[in-house]
Fold this protein.
Amino acid sequence: MKGVTKLDESSHSKKGRGWLWLLLIPFIATLFPQFYAYDQPTLWGFPFFYWYQLLWVIISAIITWIVYQTTK
Amino acid sequence: MINGTALTVFIIFFLLVTVLGFVAARWRRGNLAHIEEWGLGGRRFGTLITWFLLGGDLYTAYTFIAVPALMFTQGSIGFYAVPYTIIIYPFVFVVMPRLWSVARKHGYITASDFVKGRFGSSGLSFVVALTGILATMPYIALQLVGMQAVIAGMGITGEWPLVIAFIILAAYTYTSGIRAPAMIAIVKDLMIYITIIAAIIVIPIKLGGFGHIFQAAANTLPTLQPKPGSFIVSPAAFSAYSSLALGSALALFLYPHSITGVLSSSSRSVIKRNSALLPAYSIMLGFIALLGFMAIAAGIHTKSSSMAVPLLLLKEFPSWFAGFGFAAIAIGALVPASIMSIAASNLFTRNIYTEYFKKDSSKEHEARVAKIVSLIVKFGALIFIVALPNTLAIQFQLLGGIWILQTFPAIIFGLFTKWFHRHALILGWLVGMITGTWMAIANNLASSVFALHLGSFVLPAYAAIWALVANLIVSVVFTWIFNAMNIGHGQDQTVPSDYEEDHTVTV
């Protein structure tokens, strides 16, 4: 019985591993200031450089949550 | 002049958390005479407590003072704290559940325990422990710098308030272990959130909106003397900006206090959920960084940039609320300082003391040593700050960040592969330590960004990253060499499934 559970667990944990690649997106989006080191367009007075990075905190958290749900 | 109202509010909240710190010993009662209970809370913290604990642990008082101070004096480069705290979490999501599982399976308390089990090398385990302790000590000292800034903000001079605060901190860490900072973190984090939410609503209204604040920063930063700041990161600084973010992110979860926080959680899912929930603190940190620009817009002038935030709060808020914010920051120093001292003493006890001095230590003896070492670590930090100039602690912390990243191959790659040779990892570590230290000294310990010259090509980047590259090259090349020479690998205690198991069901 124990053996069966183990097998189930390991096949279960392999499920949806492809989704892990999504976790690379935040690195690409934030580690290249070339993409976002601009003043315009501004949003509520925030220059693009500042609101873009703050926005990515949220997007990145959502991506992580999606990956958590799909690989659970 | 002493600000009586602010001081009163400050003292009330400080007393409240002191009581909490001692009461915490009874919370989820465990046998505090064992290091696993005292130092890891019995690995029982769920999602919410872990969220508060790690939030309080990683986003320290020093961060709240230093990041806006950097924005205040240098501008946009200080905002690297945001990408830094974005990319940490996808990384943690993939890596830290593996560390949790293998540590749970084999009863590892520290990263050094894991390295010893994985590579069968007490030498490698020793250098990982040593690096952890060396990097943590100045970090604890810097928490005091954060506390000093707010105490000075209330008009109190002298070192005695710091001494009192640290004696209290030492006492409840000694009696309650990690339960104390876990409980205090809840109060501290709520206070920080209240302060910051109030600040980002009230201060922009008073200063004429965010547009006006950014305009003031854009106008003022280029005129700063002696070194002008920048409002938007310039192309010349791109590589510095992103390598600071990447290097700091990869380093953060190698610090002993972060690992202690991770290992005290109750399951893999707790860590994964928190990877999606902890970014709430990163948003807050982004706004805290902008307090530096608000200080510029509010016309704050100070020689000591660490006073920018305290002075801003005093100028824009009534005294009682400034006192509340100051208490939040000071308590924000206590939580990480406590966890850091626990983590450093776990390392010393488990990987140096019982390894080299007293191999047959009982569990009780081990916990007793850890408690005493946690006191020594904190008083060491206190003496550091009281007796030596603060710049020395800041310089050591800069070195600490470079040093801790040199344990990356052994710990992080070790979680995925045993390909590396134990001796090669030690050599790689040594080369990384020397390279990184040399680069920092070449910068007069004033900046962690080192410009690498390759012929006419110049690439500035975080010295920790350069050192890690050197470390990796040596680790790979010498793994080939040692394998070719048939020098044996160490005994690996772990099997692949140890890294995946949930351990929620024990048969």
